[in-house]
Amino acid sequence: MGEEPYYIDKISDYIERTVLTEAERGFNQMVLYGRDSTVDDIVSNAKRYPMMAEHQVVIVKEAQELSRTIEKLATYAQNPQPTTVLVINYKYKKIDKRKALYKALHKVGVVYESKKLYENQVADWIRRVLAPKGYAITPKASQMLVEFLGTDLSKINNELEKLQIILPKDSEITPEAIEAHIGISKDYNNFELRKAIGDRNVTKAYKIVTYFAENPKDNPMVVTVSLLFNFFSQLLHFHGLKDKSPRSVASALRINPYFVNEYVTAARNYPMRKVSAVVSVLRDFDVKSKGVGAHAVSQGDLLKELLYKIIH
Fold it and tell me: In this predicted model, what pLDDT tens digit does every residue of 34-93 receive, in sequence order?
């Protein structure tokens, strides 16, 4: 159960593939879906005896669709059929740990909670997924994937699998490879805009914003404003740190140590008072990017106005 579906699917798929042999699956493996089933259906299938096998496997996918009645499974969980492997996939939510079902499941089986990763944890996850398969990835390439795909591990894994088909083993995934094979620009993205603004590189920042204005569908302003707001909020936190050593900064801001120098540079270019003003400006533009009070203004013009107010 939990907010991150990636590991729920991984564990469930592993059980589906490995508990029974191919010959045993025909009579002894059942996949049910929450939307099309009831708790009574699950219990009825779970109570059957296996045929010519030691176990049967019953997998309930999308069990969150049964959220109103799922507690009825507690009676079965208190006295389960020992020859049945019952797998319940409860995605994006958690069952109530205070109630009878969780307590019964926790007692007789295994409850795995799949938690959503924080954005700063995803780059390390990407590295750990790639390493056993013989691939490395640069910090900037990881950041590009996170910026473009967010923290959805399934989407990120799909793109990584594409790259592994294309690139030879023992190679390093670079921003150039991301641009060529996934279609994310290595030069015109929010990551590069953030860096240009932090460096006060006005020319580069305006080039990126102009590119965004010309390609609004691929670069929605609401995402840009959100990422810049997070950056300047972290910069405000940075100004307040007593210990500004790289390790301490990386830990306090929950960022990859590779990017600490960006914050050091940005802090020199933006004193605390200016950072506070920028955060306030970004709040205003967050509302405008969602169409409130700026109906007649294009997102491109809004972005250029925002950039002017940040840098000047």
Answer: 999 999 999 999 999 999 999 999 999 999 999 999 999 999 999 999 999 999 999 999
The string over 80-117, giving b where at least 16 C-beta atoms fall within 10 Å of a residue's C-beta and e elsewhere, is bbeebbbbbbbbeeebeeeeebbebbeeeeebeebeeb
d(CA 41, CA 107): 23
Which residues lie below 8 Å from residue 48, measured CB to CB, with a gap of 6+? 56, 81, 84
- What is the number of other CB atoms lying within 10 angstroms of the CB of residue 217? 5
Return the C-alpha torsion angle 117, 11, 63, 154, nearest 10: 40
SS3 annotation, the chain: CECCHHHHHHHHHHHHHHCCCHHHHHHHEEEEEHHHCCHHHHHHHHCCCCCCCCCEEEEEECHHHHCCCHHHHHHHHHCCCCCEEEEECCECCCCCCCCHHHHHHHHHCCCCCCCCCCHHHHHHHHHHHHHHHCCEECHHHHHHHHHHHCCCHHHHHHHHHHHHHHCCCCCEECHHHHHHHHCCCCCCCHHHHHHHHHHCCHHHHHHHHHHHHHCCCCCCHHHHHHHHHHHHHHHHHHHCCCCCCHHHHHHHHCCCHHHHHHHHHHHHHCCHHHHHHHHHHHHHHHHHHCCCCCCCCCHHHHHHHHHHHHHC
Find the farthest-apart pair of alpha carbons in the chain and give their distance in angstroms, rounded. Answer: 76
Indicate the residue type of 72.
K
